[in-house]
Amino acid sequence: MNFPDFSPDKLKLYYQQINLVELTANQLIKDFEWSNLTVEFPENSENPYNDLSQQVVPLVDLMIQQNSHKLLNLLYKIDVNEHQFIKILDEFTGLKLAEELTHLIIEREFKKVLIKEYFKKQQNP
Q: What mean pLDDT comes out for the span 114-120?
């Protein structure tokens, strides 16, 4: 297995792989629980990535409106790229801001999962 390709087109293909979406959901669940927020994996879904995203957007929007410190702590814990975060803050407002931040969060969680899977396969070929 080659190191994961993080290009946007390749990431879209990963988003369609149910096992990777489930692992990403598990990572999201763990990180959001740290902030006392609940996310559940959308089982029996035709598009689990979108369903997962739709769950996270309202949580992010709530944190934007009511507890930005909590949001910043979560973004730090997840290790979201600071430059991408600042760019999104500069470009978007309202619900679109929450949607873009959600995409950034899920994308980062996906990348972590892909890297873990890569190294797991390297150890157990």
A: 91
Q: Measure CA 95 to chain center.
A: 17
- The DSSP secondary structure of the chain, one letter per residue, reads -PPPP-SHHHHHHHTT-HHHHHHHHHHHHHHHHHTT------TT-SSHHHHHHHHHHHHHHHHHHH-HHHHHHHHHHHT--HHHHHHHHHH--HHHHHHHHHHHHHHHHHHHHHHHHHHHHHH--
Q: Is 31 within 8 Å of 78 (Cβ atoms)?
A: yes
Q: How far is Cα 64 from Cα 97, in angstroms, rounded to an integer?
A: 9
Selection from 121, 93, 95, 110 nearest residue 5 by Cα = 110
Task: Dig out the tokens for 5 from the structure.
Answer: 């390709």
In this structure, what token pair is assigned to residue 8?
A: 């946007």
pLDDT score of 88: 97
Query: How far is the C-alpha of 99 from the C-alpha of 92, rounded, in Å?
Result: 9
pTM of the model: 0.90
- Name the nearest CA neighbour of 87 among 67, 101, 99: 101
